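Table S2 (continued). Query chain:
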Amino acid sequence: MTFAAKMKKKVEILAPAKNLVQGMAAINAGADAVYIGAPQFGARSNATNSLEDIADLVEYAHLFKAQVFVVVNTILYDNELEDCKNLIHELYNIGVDALIVQDMAVLEMDLPPIVIHASTQANNRDPKHVKFLADAGMKRVVLARELNLDQIKEIHEASDVELEFFVSGALCVSFSGNCYMSVANGERSANRGSCAQNCRLPYNLIDGTGKTLLSSSHLLSIKDLDLSDQLPSLIEVGVTSFKIEGRLKDMVYVKNNVSYLRKKLDLFLAGTDKYIKASSGRTFHNFEPEMDRSFNRGYTDYFVNKRKEKIGSWDTPKSQGQIIGKVLEVKANGYVIENFEKLNNGDGLYFINENGEADGAQVNIIINDIVVPNTFKPLTVGTMIYRNSDAEFNRLVEREDSAVRKIGVNFKFIETTTGFELTATDEDGHVSVSTIESEKEVAKNGESTLPNIQKNLSKTGNTPFIVDAIDIQFSNNWFLPISKINEARRVVLEQLIDIRIKEYHREEFQIKKTDHPYPVTQLDFTYNVANHMARAFYKRHGVTEIEKAFELQWDPGKSRVMTTKYCVKYELGKCARFQRETMGEKVVEPLVLKQGELEYKLKFNCKPCEMEIWEKDAEFEIEDQESQLSR
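Corresponding output:
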C-alpha cells in the first residue's frame, strides 16, 4: 500500500453472518467486515456458531484483509462471567479482530489484548456517554439508530472513537437494549438473545373513553431502514462503518444488500481522495443488486434527517417487497396487472385484500397478460401489487458465482542462470516467488512464445486472484512446456494465499481499568446491570445508585417495558408539535394497545419527543402536549 493510501481514512461495509457460509458469501459480495455469533452470549440465540466455523471465517476474511467481529452482546449473569471470559480468550486465540459487547462486566475481566466495540445496546446516544466509553478503552461505538446527522456530528467532535451506524435492515422500534416487552410477557429476554418480537403483533388501539380507534393493526411494527443514499452525508459527520442488520436473514438478503451498498460506496470512493475501502480485492457481480428485491417492509430513513415522515408498517410485519403495479382487470381466474412482464412463475405476490388485510399469493403461470395465482383471491381494480419473493432473482443470487471477489496481482516472469522465475506481487505489496529449473531451449518454429505464455499465466481459475499485468523479460524466444508454466503459476498463487494470511496485521489493544467519571451517578434498570462485575465497573467510575436489570426485578403488570422515538400519535396525525394545523380533534388519553390478554398504556413525552410503553396496571400522570412543549 502506498503512503498516500495509508493517509486515507478507511470506510467499511459491515455485513451480518448467520453462519460460515453466509459470512464467506458476504465477503465475496464486497463486505469489508462481518459480524457473527459465537456459541454463547450473542443477542440472536438462533444464530450461534462453533469456534471452528468462526476460525475458518477468520482465515477466509483475512485473505482479503476483511475483519471478523464476534457479538458477545447479551447481559451476563454472575454464573456466566467465567465462561464468558474463557470464550473471549478462545476467540482471541483463533484470530477474531474485535468483540461487540453490551455488558460492562467484560471491561472488568482479565482479557487478552483484543479490540472491544460498544454495542448499540450500551446507551450510545449522546457525546458524553460515547466519550466515556472511548476513554474506557472502547475502540468503536455502534451508534443508536435514532440519531440524526447533527447528533452524530456532535458525538464525532467530542471523541475520535470509530463510529459505526446501521444503514439497512430491520429496525428495533425501541431504543436498543431498552425493550422489555418480551421478557415481561413470557420470560424471553431480548437482552439475553431471545426476543419474542411482541412489537410485530397486531393490536387494537383504544382511547381513554374505551373507544376502539383501530383494530388488528401492527401498531408497533415499523418499516425497514435504507440509508444507502446517505453514505456521503454519514461519512461527512464521522461514520466510518456502515452496518447491515440481519443475522437471521437468508443468503439472498445478505448478498443483495452487501452488493448494493458496495456499488454505492465504491462510486463515492472513486470521487474522493480522503477515503479508501477498508479491505482488499474487488467484486464482480453477475446480478444487478436492488434492495427492494429481497426482504423488506417498505423503507424509511428513520430519523437520520430528523422526524419528517410516517414510518409505521401497520398492515403487516412481513415482507412487502417491490412495487409491480396496479390491478387493471380481474379476468377469469387471474389478474391483469401493470408491468406484469416483470413477474415470473413462482413469484410471491403481496397485496391488501378486499377486507383491508395484508394478503398474498404465488404466481402459478402467466398466460398472455393474465397473471394466474396458485390460489385465486378476489381483488378490486386499482389494488397495488407488490412482489415479495422474486423466484428468478433468488435463483440467480443464490448461485455461488453471483458475486466473485478477486485480488489484483502482477506477474513478472524472467530467466535465471538455471531456468526461469515467476514473481507475483499483489495489490497490497505481498510477494511470492516460484522457480522453474530447466534447460533453456529456443522455440523451433520461430513463432514468438510470449503470447502463449501470457495466455497461460493469466488463467487464475478458482483462485482468489485476478492478473492485472504480466511482464515477461526474456533474452531469447525460449520454449517452455505449458505444464511447467501452469505449475509455476499454481505454486506462486498458493504461496501468496499463505503469505497474505500469515502477514495479516490484527490490531490489538489491552483494556486497562480507568476511573474517569461516568456521565451520570444514578442508573435505573435500563442500564441493564445484571452482575457484580458490571456493578463494580460503574461504582469505580463514580456511580452511587445502581438499579438491578429488569430481568432481576420485574414488577408484573406495572413496569415500563419500552422507550422509543417512534410515536403512535405522530403516525395518527395527532402530534401537537409537528401536525398542529392538520391534527383536528385531540385523542383522549391514555391510549391503550390491546392484543388478547396483552395490554399496554402509551405515555407521550413530547419535550424529548419520545413515547413510553407501560404495562396495564402502571400508573403515571398524563400531561398535555402543549404544556410540555411550552416549558
